[in-house]
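Please, is this right?
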Amino acid sequence: MTKAPERLREIARSLNRRQWRPTPAEVELGSTFFHRVKELEEEPHPEFPRGADHWSRLHTENLVVLARTVTMARDELLSVWKDRLPGSPMVELVEQYVSGAEPLLPHAERLVAAWHGVTFPEPIADEIAYEAKRLNVSAEEGEANLRYWKAVRWEEKHHPESLWDDLRPAWSYLGAVRSTMMAAVTGDTDY
């Protein structure tokens, strides 16, 4: 992936210098990407518990969403837009997102397979009551928080932080691709 970061920098630089001025069709592609990603991120995943705050997500759920995003980008966007916008930097950015995510996908498959093989002990009534009182929330919210933290501990035990550290460069690269795409969509290139 040594060429991809260089090309990403070239695209970002050309956008910043206004050498690449995204066409309305390129902006549409980028907007569609972000709209679909938002839908996938907000889609309920009842098999994964959530923490007390809505955005507390398990790494496992994040990887499931990433895998679905890659499939969507490849099957829904690139299959249509690649021919519509040949040579487009926006198409290249979507391609870079897909290829940048590919090293994470085998890990996602392993983690999800392990997730489906685990059964967590049910929280008992006393634990639920204590958690609800501690957080000043309903019993249902207290139980949901307990389930979330049991799952977090499972992830920490079976997939240590060092593993996530190894994956962080790929996540960072995806963030850079998304930032460049967003700048192209919004026209906010003064970063």
User: Anything to note?
Assistant: The CA atoms of residues 8 and 177 lie 7 Å apart. The chain has a mean pLDDT of 91. The two ends are 24 Å apart (CA to CA). The longest helix spans residues 59-84.
